[in-house]
Amino acid sequence: MSIPSPILRRLPLGAQWPCIDPFLFCAHHNDAYPAGNGAFGPAASLAGRNLGSDFSGKDGWSMYHGQEVPGFPVHPHRGFETITLVRQGMLDHADSLGAMARFGGGDVQWMTAGSGVQHTEMFPLLHTDRPNPLQLFQIWLNLPARHKMEPAHFTMYWNETIPRLQHSDDAGHATTVTVVAGPLPGADAPLPPPPASWAAQADSDVAVWLISLAPGARWTLPSAVKKEAGRMLYWYVGNGLSLENEQIPAHTAMQLDPSRAIALHNSGTETAELVLLQGRPIAEPVARYGPFVMNTEAEIHQAISDYRRTQFGGWPWAESAPVHGAQPRRFARRPGQTQDELPPAA
User: Fold this and answer.
1) Cβ pair 130, 84 in contact under 8 A
2) By the 8 A CB rule, do 32 and 42 touch?
3) What pLDDT, on a 0 to 100 scale, did the predictor assign at position 84?
4) Do 121 and 201 fall into the same domain?
5) What is the pLDDT of residue 346?
6) How far apart are CA 71 and CA 5, in angstroms?
7) Which stretches of sequence are listed as region Disordered (predicted)?
8) pLDDT value for 161
9) Domain endpoint, select from 258, 284, 310
10) Number of folded domains in the chain?
11) Residue 112 and residue 260: Cα distance in Å, rounded?
12) What contacts 264, CB < 8 A, 6 or more positions away?
């Protein structure tokens, strides 16, 4: 009797990757920005772009909602969390809590929107003498109803502190797994998620892992702890991958059987890059409207009304799309603090 495939279904990646409960959204931004113009924007013509809503990918990059600097000027959120992983380039963050940060190179920001927050995510083009490539993931993780109105919370994970599993197979081929959330045998204990997060609940089985397999590498993805966990594996870089000897023909999103440990093999000549999103479903109704995610339409209407009335605490910055200077240093300034936090020394 043949063993059934561990892949329950395959879905196209697209501009926004398909997600299942408790995750709401995953976007992979991969922009080949040109040299900067000295004012943090591109030293290239913006003619022909729908500025304010440019998702065209023209010439390999977009301005998104930025008018002069690419990115996302001030906008609100309520009822969920954003997990932002910057692999290349820099992101400038500012929010209505008074927090600010410039991060990149593997850093992660985890923001609980909770009852309401405004923030910005700008992509400053700091280099005027060379291109400014940017690659990041933004993941939306839902909040259970009992925590949707918790106060907003800002969390920063520096690349140097994020646990990693370094594995070498019998042939000496390397696999690296970056553990943003969820314990992984062989890696250090994961960093604590924000207190109101679904990932902070003892039985949520939330995992956010970045998996990198060298050419020829073999590694076994352990089974989920909870048999009811939703599990999505996204293959987005590389030219060869097999799961349990089943060759995957093209980059794709795969919903996996959570009860099975699954042998991965990079059968190609290039490094294979994958993302795993896993978690026990919250299993509550979801009502969504733009930047608000609640449980009912009435709660969405209340969120809109509250935002119009309170601006979720107001906007403490002089600009709607602040950029944090010309120095390419990474830092964070937490709410209510006056001193910058820097990454740990190497």
Assistant:
1) no
2) no
3) 98
4) no
5) 66
6) 40
7) 323-346
8) 97
9) 284
10) 2
11) 31
12) 211, 213, 218, 219, 220, 221, 241, 242, 243, 274
What is the C-alpha separation between 124 and 222, in angstroms, rounded?
39
Question: What is the reported pLDDT for 3?
Answer: 82
Within 10 Å of residue 314's Cβ, how many Cβ atoms? 9
CA pair distance 294, 289, nearest whole angstrom: 9
H helices, E strands: number in the chain: 1, 24
Residue 73 lies in a domain: yes
Is position 207 within any domain? yes
In a domain, 340, yes or no: no
What distance in Å separates the CA atoms of residue 187 and residue 143, rounded to the nearest whole number? Answer: 27
Say how far apart CA 113 and CA 115 lie, in whole Å.
6
- Do residues 260 and 300 share a domain? no
Given a contact cutoff of 8 angstroms between Cβ atoms, the answer to whether 240 and 276 are in contact is no
For 85, counting Cβ atoms within 10 Å of its Cβ (0-12 exposed, 13-18 middle, 19+ buried), the class is buried
Residues of the chain with pLDDT under 70: 1, 346
Beta bridge partners of 240: none
Distance (Å, whole) CA 23 – CA 6: 21
Whether residue 199 sits in one domain with residue 64 = no
**Do 157 and 168 fall within a single domain?**
no
Q: Are residues 194 and 310 in the same domain?
A: no
Structure confidence at residue 51 (pLDDT)? 97
- Quick check: is 55 in a domain? no
Looking at the fold, whether 102 and 215 belong to one and the same domain comes out as no
What is the residue range of 177's domain? 1-11+164-284
- The number of angstroms, rounded, from the C-alpha of 198 to the middle of its chain's C-alpha atoms is 16
Residues 262 and 303 in one domain: no
pLDDT of residue 1: 58
The tokens for 146 are 């009992």
3-state secondary structure of 256: strand
